[in-house]
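Hi there,

I know you've been waiting on this one. I reran it after we fixed the sequence typo, so this is the corrected version. Both the input and the resulting structure follow.
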Amino acid sequence: MDLMADFLSKMSNYEKEIELEWLVVYRIKDVPTCQVTSSPKEKIHEIRIHPWVLYNFDFFLPSVLHELCHCKLAEIIDPLFSRAAFPKKYLLKAKERNEIFVYLDYATKHIDIWVNELRNQYWPEITLLDHQTLLYSLERMIKENKSSQIFNFEGIFSIAFSLAEEKKYPQLKKVPSITSLFKFFPDHLQFFISKISEFLESLPPLSYEKEKDLKLLESSTQKFCQLLMFPITPYIEFDEKEGFYLWKIKEIEEDF
């Protein structure tokens, strides 16, 4: 069996376990590990995976299952829990106002706390594996003096996320705390990581009621924007033309 066929066979079992109803399509792309987009019109989830996922399935399993849980939340709550979606007219501003879209992408990263809550319900052992994998990766990068790969937003968020989860899941007490690596971090980054972690810890669980959870997503994203000092005002609104809830951004709406 070739690598892709083996991967699809394994993932099919996980898809059944989590009881996904929409079709899941996997595509090999040059992306950082995994990314997902859920299309409510076609009822398709597209998960893009980097080729190295096929070669080291066990190592990247937490990431792939994380994307499957995005898919599940998209089905049972709303596709905005899979990936941010905007009105089509925003494409006209994509290049000119690109930084605004980047801000919202970062400001909705906290969705992952809920995604992993769901993943932990199905596969608690994966929560432990995910934490171990992050610790291993960080220790290796520190030894190889690759701190620039840690101290970007993605790296800082991953560390803050792990710190928040340590207080949430009992199985993480079996492994060293992420704080064991703080001695290698500058003071200002330790402070920033702690602030993000505190925000993540403050998030209430999802109710699995569409309207309530969309309100929670909207308000928490606005709070995260304030914490990160992003100069945008995002909000969620039902779009009559599209027939779905979409993200809108005040600063872009004012351009039309």
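Quick highlight: The chain has a mean pLDDT of 94.

Best,
R. S.
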